[in-house]
Write a structure and sequence with these properties.
Distance between the termini: 26 Å
Strand content: 5-15%
Number of helices: 11
CATH topology of the largest domain: Rossmann fold
Mean pLDDT: 90
Largest sheet: 5 strands, parallel
Shape: globular
CATH architecture of the largest domain: 3-Layer(aba) Sandwich
Structural class: alpha/beta
Radius of gyration: 19 Å
Number of strands: 9
Helix content: 25-40%
Low-confidence stretches: none
Length: 314
């Protein structure tokens, strides 16, 4: 693997499969009474979050701690950043602390790239979400979840991603990674919620959810990101749900093996109904568990090495 993980496009197929294989080994730890490994003892991981995200931050924190790393949580709110400290000054502070890895979430697209390529830090930089750009570890945990349910590989599998693609870093990272792993991706959204330039992505696009669902192997519903919207992207919430929401009727048209996913947090009743979210097809809770294993794998491979993390214990 490269020194940083900034984009799903950074990962070759071999890189991605190494992460997924390592995550599968580490996933077994979740079922053990003692969930810790000494793999990153003495290493320091800093969670640098300029945006709120309890789920992702806790997932990275749990991942680092299970590998015995020291963790520093650096929240932008209430810190010197809110007093006007620049990204550069913050980076120099982290470097002085001896950070080995910096996990960055930022509202500006490209901020993790700036940090990684600035020369300000020697640490590995992991993009935990930048603006509407990318969220590569979410794509990895989604792919990992799919492989566990769809026969261990994604070659030729049909993945449907539905909803607010325009504001979704998850959709962009998934489109890139799933294509690398051999899957066929279809984005379904109203025309107003597809980004400019989507025709250059390695995906098909559709406005007709009912037309693509019966052939899907996995369906990922995206949250409508109202906080990033300042215009009329669709007439009403009710109309959006009618055309692009996943309900019991639509779920009944899926193949028997098809799984339902969501990166969270869900807006129940908007893009997904409660009965679908809580159904046997839903792997949404499992995605959270898998997220810790995948982020452990990423941190281990960036900081530890390319050998299997758990191998050799027998």
């Amino acid at each position: 693997m490269k020194r940083h993980l900034l984009s799903a496009a950074d990962l070759s197929r071999d890189d991605a499969e190494l992460v997924l294989t390592t995550a599968a080994e580490l996933r077994e730890l979740a079922d053990r009474p003692i969930k810790k490994l000494p793999a990153l003892r003495g290493r320091t991981v800093v969670n640098l979050f300029f945006e709120d995200s309890t789920r992702t931050r806790i997932s990275f924190e749990a991942a680092a701690k299970r590998l015995s790393a020291d963790v520093i949580n650096f929240a932008a709110k209430g810190s010197s950043l809110s007093k006007g400290e620049s990204l550069k000054d913050t980076a120099l502070t982290l470097e002085a602390m001896g950070a080995d890895a910096v996990v960055v979430r930022h509202g500006a697209s490209g901020a993790p790239h700036r940090l990684a390529h600035s020369g300000w830090v020697r640490s590995s930089v992991v993009n935990a979400g930048d603006g509407t750009h990318e969220h590569p570890t979410q794509a990895l945990l989604d792919a990992f979840t799919m492989t566990r349910h769809l026969g261990g590989h994604l070659d030729g599998r049909r993945i449907v991603i539905v909803g607010d693609v325009l504001h979704s870093r998850v959709a962009r990272s998934n489109a890139l990674l799933l294509d690398t792993l051999g899957a066929e991706v279809t984005l379904v959204a109203p025309p107003t919620l597809l980004p400019v330039g989507v025709e250059s992505w390695p995906v098909e696009t559709s406005y007709d959810l009912d037309g693509v669902l019966p052939k899907a192997d996995a369906v990922m519903m995206l949250r409508v990101q109202r906080e990033r919207m300042n215009g009329g992207f669709f007439p009403t919430a009710r109309e959006y749900s009618r055309r692009y929401g996943l309900d019991g009727r639509r779920m009944a048209t899926l193949q028997d093996h098809t799984i339902v996913m969501h990166p969270g947090p869900m807006v129940r009743g908007m893009e997904i109904t409660a009965d679908v979210a809580d159904s046997d097809r839903s792997v949404i809770v499992e995605q959270v568990t898998n997220g810790v294993a995948v982020r452990m794998a990423v941190l281990y491979l960036l900081l530890g090495g390319s050998e299997p993390a758990v191998g050799g214990e027998e």
